[in-house]
Amino acid sequence: MLITTAPDGTEVRATDEGRGPVLLILHPGLDDGRSWDKVAAQLTPRHRVVRLHRRQYRQDLPGPATIPQEVEHVVAAAREIGSPILLVGHSSGAVVALESLLAAPGMFTGAVLYEPPVVIGPPLGGPGGEVNVRARQAIAAGRPGRALRIFIRDTVGLPAWMAFLAGVFTALSPRLRPLVPHQIDDNEALDRLGVRLDAYAGVETPVLLLGGDRSPAHLGERLDALARVLPRAERVVLHGQGHSAHAAAPAEVAAVIESFAARTTG
After folding, report:
1. Mean pLDDT throughout 140-158?
2. pLDDT confidence of 266, banded at 50, 70, 90?
3. Which of these, 3, 19, 29, 181, is most buried using a 10 Å CB contact count?
4. How many structural domains does the chain have?
5. Integer angstrom CA distances of residue 204 from 63, 105, 180, 233, 246
6. How far is it, in rounded angstroms, from Cα 225 to Cα 181?
C-alpha cells in the first residue's frame, strides 16, 4: 500500500504491487481500483503497478471532489513514487490523467487514456444537468439502482436493457451501491471542467488513446477530438471490445499498455 499526503492534508491511498517501470492507474467511475485487478495481475510480473483509490470515490473523505482536487492526489502519489511514471486512466479517470499531465508534465513519461469522456460540446449531464438532477432524485428516494440506470442510459449511452441490468446488479451489491452518489458527483465534476480541448493542445507528453469498436459512438467521437489536438497522440482500437475491456479482455489491455510503456519509460 502506498500512503502519502496531499497539499490540503488529505490522505492519498493506492494499492502498490510488483517491481519495475511504474504504471500509475486511475480507475473509472463506480470503482475503487479493484475493477483493474485482472489487468494488474498481467502487468505486475514486469512492472510496479500503483492503483490510486481516486479521491472522488473515497468514502472516508468529504466530498464531492473537484477534478483539481483529484489531480492533487495524483501528483502527490507521483511525488511519493519518485520514478519515471506512465499514467493509465480509464473513463473519468482518464480525464483526471489528462489534467494531471497539464498540472505536472515533467512527472510522467506518457499516458494511456482509455475512452475519456471529455466534454466536447453539450454537458454530459444534459441541458441544465437534467440527467444528474433525475439521478439525484432517485438517490434521494432510496433507489440507487434507478439512479445508475439513468446515468448509464442517458450519459454513457448504453441500451436501456443493459442499463437496467447494471442498475439491478449495483442495487444488490453492498460494495457498489454506496458508490452511486459518487458517480453522479463525478459526472458533475466533468461538466464543471467543461470543454478543455484548447488546453490539451499544450500536452507535449506522448499519449495513447485507447478505445473499443463496440463502445457507444460518442466515446469514439471524444477520442477523435483529442486525437486532433494532442500533439503526440496515437490511437489503438480494441476490436470486439467496449468500455469494459479491462474486465473482458485484461490480457489484451495489458499488452497495449506494456507495448506503450516499453517505448516511453524504457
Report:
1. 96
2. low
3. 29
4. 2
5. 32, 8, 35, 9, 27
6. 29
